[in-house]
Amino acid sequence: MSHQFDVEKSRADAVVSAGERRRAALAEVDEAKFSWFHAKACIVAGVGFFTDAYDIFSISIAATMIGYVYHAGGANTANQDLGIKVAHSIGTFFGQLLFGFLADHVGRKRMYGIELMIIIVGTLGQAVAGHAAGVSIYGVLIMWRFIMGMGIGGDYPLSAVITSEFAARRIRGRMMTAVFASQGWGNFASAIVSIVCITAFKHQIQHQPIANLKAVDQVWRLIIGIGCVPAVVALYFRLTIPETPRYTMDVERNIKQASQDVDTYLTSGTYVNDPINNNERAELPKASWADFGRHFGQWKNGKVLLGTAWSWFALDIAFYGLGLNSSTILTTIGFGSATNLATKQLNIYQTLHNVAVGNIILAVGGLIPGYYFSFFLIDSWGRKPIQLMGFSVLTVLFVIMGFGYDKILSTGSGKKAFVFLYCMANFFQNFGPNTTTFVIPGEAFPTRYRSTAHGISAASGKLGAIVAQVGFSRMINIGGKNKFLKHILEIFAFFMLTGIFSTLLLPETKGRTLEDLSQESQDHFVKDSDLNNNGINKTSGNGSTASEEDTRAHEI
């Protein structure tokens, strides 16, 4: 009887130690002061999003150049243009689902960097893609852009979750927004690089024969190829970033190693993996299909996943669909296609120059400022109010732009007003749901499903982008060139309205710990450990238990 009591007492002491050690480590992460390690995590993750946006937005001007080169100064067919522009979105959709799943089952650290390698390979593949009798340049580009898209897709759940799990509670929103805001700078950089390259090749573009636009061919390859430079720089730092303590504790179930990691990286920014001494395994809820169904089968959890997925889907329909208006906007502000110059070559140069400058104006006019309004307010005002405000304002803006389309564009002052409304729509997408739909899924789910759920949410958004790019690009010319555009804007207004209702399903995540947001009780989260391997229930030569040894192994 005494022997059994000693074993049970030792087991209880071990469980208490593991649970307390976990809570202490989590509290240390949640209440940590902002340090160089936090800044480094933001920079390393942000460089990936910078690269993603650069690669995504650079194709718009590159596609125009490709049309000039392979159509003797003409343009791509509708299918060719759509193919090279939508291929990365389809790849991103699958990458978000795949890497989201793998990051929860293999580990954040093991997957982080692999997606960047895929982006680098896909980007270089595009830059050197060739045309031959047996294969079209468009087919080769579509293949490489799909591969690149897989890597970009992997970046979404990995960067979001790693930043979220390393961040202190009170600054988590700003850290995640800082990472996501790198997209705006990537867009801006693609326009800057474009104008530099176009200007550098100005003489050749203006004087080479239409049948051999070698300089234009070199420029688009250079613009796309430069996109892999920041990715190469960031690769080493991604491969050497430590595993997040939450994953080590809650999925690998190694609480002792996680506690050591927290103590080490918060002070020195480094970590030491010690599999010999830190080999304890606590018993916590394990990820499985049955457990996934049980967890999200409860409405309190399922509604959050539904809310994040639909909000992102609705937002991306308008976010990518708004690009359908860019040519109208650029023409209105004097940066449209040039057609009245002396030679075809001069028109080509001026058109490319106008598009690059126009993209800089649009980025500065609404895209980048919106991110930083979110950055400054997300940890004080909250995620949910920003998302609700954004969807509400966007609903009103798209109603005005859609139902008043013909009347607004009928006068010169009306066209200027339309440009203003367009910039406001860009602004309130980024100071609104475009930022928060990235942040909330990285916070609102348990550690064992956080990356998977973020991947599902992000893939839902990318599905919306594909619908916008494929569906609306086909619909826009119903009844004549751009005749259906006003109705598309009205459709956007409807989806923004649905985003208001899906946002109501979401919790406010500001200032709360990730464990609190998981909606799982933390009181008995660490259950009875499987301690047989550590000595409990084993006997020494004289018949006594090895509980003392095991108890020492679990001391804090």
UniProtKB/TrEMBL annotation:
The chain crosses the membrane at residues 43-70, 82-102, 114-147, 184-201, 222-241, 317-343, 355-374, 386-405, 417-440, 452-472, 484-506. Pfam families: Sugar_tr. It is a multi-pass membrane protein. GO terms for biological process: phosphate ion transport. One of its GO terms (molecular function) is phosphate transmembrane transporter activity. Keywords: Membrane, Phosphate transport, Transmembrane, Transmembrane helix, Transport. Residues 525-556 are annotated as: Disordered. The keyword Glycosyltransferase does not apply. This is Phosphate:H+ symporter. The lineage of its organism: Eukaryota, Fungi, Dikarya, Basidiomycota, Agaricomycotina.
